Amino acid sequence: MSKIISLEKAAAKVESGSRVMIGGFLACGTPEKIVDKLIDNGVENLTIIANDTSFPDRGLGKLVSNNCAKKVIASHIGTNPDTGEKMNDGSMEVELVPQGTLAERVRIGGAGLGGFLTPTGVGTVVEEGKDVIESNGEKYLLELPIKGDVALVKAWKADKKGNLIYRKSARNFNPLIAKACDTVIVEAEEIVEVGEIDPDHVMTSSIFVDYIVRGDN
Amino acid sequence: MDVKEKKEIIVKRIAKSLEDGDVVNLGIGMPTLVANHISDEIDIMLQSENGFLGLGPKPEAGKEDKDLTNAGGEAVSVKDGAMFFDSAESFTIIRGGHVDKTILGALQVDAKGNLANWMIPNKIVPGMGGAMDLVVGAKEVIIATLQTTKRGNSKILAECTLPLTAKKEVDYIVTEMGYYKIEDEKLILKEINPDFTIEEIKEATDAELIVAKDLKEMIY
């Protein structure tokens, strides 16, 4: 079964109202071609789970600025003024999560765990509504896993089976979201034959990947 | 003394507190400038929260790499011996106590070691990014801040009034006026910039200030 599909078919798998995890850190490592296609398709009411909301004209920030999202779960929204504006006028919900907590919630979502204990956020507003658990005399917050319907992953290289390599700091959340969603779509800069990637160099196994789209270099 | 000169004093003093072999994370803004003053005689590994160790200087114009940016989204380079990883690994390094020193800015910092640097309710809510994890996880937390706000209010308080980033985690505060240590929830002036008097510093500090018995001149 070939996992390589057209950009149109890939984008059509993201339905309005779904929970979408998107890779990237301030647009570095975001699958921009798929993001742009979602905007063309006019998807609405997405719940976006990502590190940040990037910039109004770059990365996944474009989805926020083009009114595609009803909710954002992120660690940082300061670089996209549209996010703050929509949060303040009530047209979009924003849940801010410390970056390490967000990464770990996604990681354990993909790892089948029920939660983890972190010292991050103890004694701050992040503690509100959460169980505080003492372990070895220290206070920790119980943080729960997070999962999504669709992951939009940006890879540098993919083989036709879906084994992935990321490049430099474009890796960030990409390998984590690839394990935490029901459907995983990869935008790869280069697609190579099976066997061309040394098994020692594979960063995300093909078993996590459902579809591959050819991206730009 | 203008703001630029004040910031230069702060980042130069902090650069001097770094030791050979340290793993250091520099926050966005003023802390980033510390990198310009690190001595060539020591080997420091800079950690970038977006996923690498071995952060290097800004590349020459035209040599930027779209896949290599710092936590502020700016093009950077890496030094020999660098490595990349994902965000969960990055925060394993940060939260797990594998970062020796983190240098962060402040909206407010207090004598108990509490820090507020991520939001002003109803004004700016950029989000905490990695700051909450860094302050809790790094072995040493150093705050780089001007002594007062533009309006002249002290940024060092008896108790922070803004939403906290973390409780009782700050170890050192460096301003243009002096070098402070937080010890047993007390603010101790360890070094003084000779351009200021102790009276001036006390006036610019909204917390009880203890002057160290062995007060030294702040050299930067």
Describe the structure.
The complex is a heterodimer of chains A (217) and B (220). Chain A has 217 residues and is an alpha/beta fold. Chain A has one domain (7-214): 3-Layer(aba) Sandwich (Glutaconate Coenzyme A-transferase), CATH 3.40.1080. Chain A contains six helices and eleven strands. In chain A, the strands form two sheets. In chain A, strands 1, 2, 3, 4, 8, 9, 10 and 11 form an eight-stranded mixed beta sheet that branches. In chain A, strands 5-7-6 form a three-stranded antiparallel beta sheet, with helices on one face. In chain A, strand 2, helix 3 (61-65) and strand 3 form a beta-alpha-beta unit. The two termini of chain A are 25 Å apart. The mean pLDDT of chain A is 97. Chain B has 220 residues and is α/β, with parallel strands linked by helices. Chain B has a domain at 3-37 and 101-217: Glutaconate Coenzyme A-transferase (3-Layer(aba) Sandwich). Chain B has four helices and 13 strands. Chain B has helices at residues 3-16, 87-95, 131-137, 198-203, and strands at residues 23-26, 45-48, 52-56, 77-84, 101-104, 108-110, 115-116, 140-144, 156-157, 172-174, 178-183, 186-192, 209-217. In chain B, the strands form two sheets. Chain B has a ten-stranded mixed beta sheet. In chain B, strand 2 and strand 3 (52-56) form a beta hairpin. In chain B, helix 2 packs parallel to helix 3. The radius of gyration of chain B is 17 Å and the shape is globular. The chains are: A alpha/beta (217), B alpha/beta (220). The interface between A and B is large, with 45 and 42 residues. Chain A: It holds the Pfam family CoA_trans. Chain A: Keywords: Transferase. Chain A: GO terms for molecular function: butyrate-acetoacetate CoA-transferase activity. Chain A: It is an enzyme of class 2 (transferase). Chain A: This is Butyrate-acetoacetate CoA-transferase subunit A.
